[in-house]
Design brief:
The longest helix is centred in the middle third of the chain and has 14 residues, at about 115-125. About 40% of the residues lie in helices and about 15% in strands. Strand 9, helix 10 and strand 10 (about 265-270) form a beta-alpha-beta unit. The strands form two sheets. Strands 1-2-5-6-7-8-9-10 form an eight-stranded mixed β-sheet, sandwiched between helices. By secondary structure, the chain is of the alpha/beta class. Helix 4 runs parallel beside helix 5 (about 115-125) and helix 6 (about 145-150) packs across helix 8 (about 180-190).
Length: about 290
């Protein structure tokens, strides 16, 4: 049973008109947003600023992570050849300056969808040459060629979330491996030092403080530069219960600790998500 909802966790007010307009734009281009698929609490705020995180490769994931709201199953279609162009067109219409592209996990594809990521980056460069491009990829099951394919397309930011501490992986991230995720981040930096690497953690799943600190140190060891830390919120009844609603002061402590450790930027708070305020986080890291 989930812990009782505290006062600092309140459902953010949703602007239905803004939600409708953004969803209409995405539907016109046969696109998905992670904002909607994950029922993100920040989606109205982000949509009001004309921003969204595009989710490519469909809306059915081949894994069944305990925290995630995305539909799990066997994907019904191969990657759409028109999707990269559609993402770029939508981003141009929205006037984005920082575009975030993520995906469901597609373990059914030989390259995990890496070529689709790469082509989406290329289309964004052609359509919005002044915009920063951030990708948030799955682990590609450790396929180093897949990671190299995405890196070769030269995103400005490469994000891959470790999500939780190693002890909880079997429950929280079934099918994933903590060390595999670290190797991915390390590979990105080896291949292209100009790409800024980024990762994210959720709190409230039963992790201990020392475990979180351990993960932060391991991320730094592999060259991760930006870290986001947020509160896990149960997206629906069938998913993992919240073990603890972490007080905002704890997030502040982790932010200060991370900055002292050496991260270029740490964005931490109950409603922080890996792509929330991505442009502002990028600017902080660059300053």
């Amino acid at each position: 049973m989930s812990a009782r909802l505290p006062e600092w966790i309140r459902e953010k007010r949703l602007n239905l008109q803004q939600l409708h307009e953004m969803k209409s734009l995405l539907r016109e281009n046969s696109l998905h947003s992670v904002c909607e698929s994950l029922a993100c609490p920040n989606r109205s705020e982000c949509f009001s600023r004309g921003t969204a995180t595009f989710m490519i490769l469909g809306d059915v994931c081949t894994r069944g992570c305990g925290f995630c709201n995305v539909t799990t199953g066997r994907p019904y279609a191969p990657p759409s050849a028109d999707e990269p162009r559609a993402v770029a067109a939508a981003a141009q219409k929205m006037g984005l300056r920082h575009v975030v592209v993520t995906s469901v996990t597609r373990d059914d594809l030989p390259d995990g969808g890496a070529r689709q990521f790469a082509e989406t980056i290329r289309q964004l460069r052609l359509t919005l040459p002044q915009a920063a491009v951030e990708v948030l990829t799955p682990d590609f099951r450790g396929n180093v060629d897949a990671v190299a394919t995405v890196v070769a397309a030269k995103p400005d930011y490469y994000n891959h979330n470790v999500e939780t501490v190693p002890r909880l992986y079997d429950v929280v991230r079934a099918g994933s491996r903590f060390e595999r995720s670290l190797r991915l981040l390390a590979q990105v930096k080896r291949l292209d030092t100009a790409i800024v690497t980024k990762s994210g953690l959720m709190l409230g799943l039963g992790e201990r403080r020392d475990e979180v600190i351990g993960v932060m140190k391991r991320l730094l060891e592999v060259g991760c530069e930006i870290l986001t830390i947020g509160q896990y919120l149960q997206p629906k009844r069938e998913k993992l219960d919240v073990v603890e609603y972490v007080h905002p002061s704890v997030f502040d402590d982790f932010r200060r600790f991370g900055e002292e450790l050496g991260f270029r930027a740490v964005f931490a708070g109950p409603f922080v998500r890996s792509s929330y305020m991505a442009e502002a986080v990028a600017h902080e890291a660059a300053s």
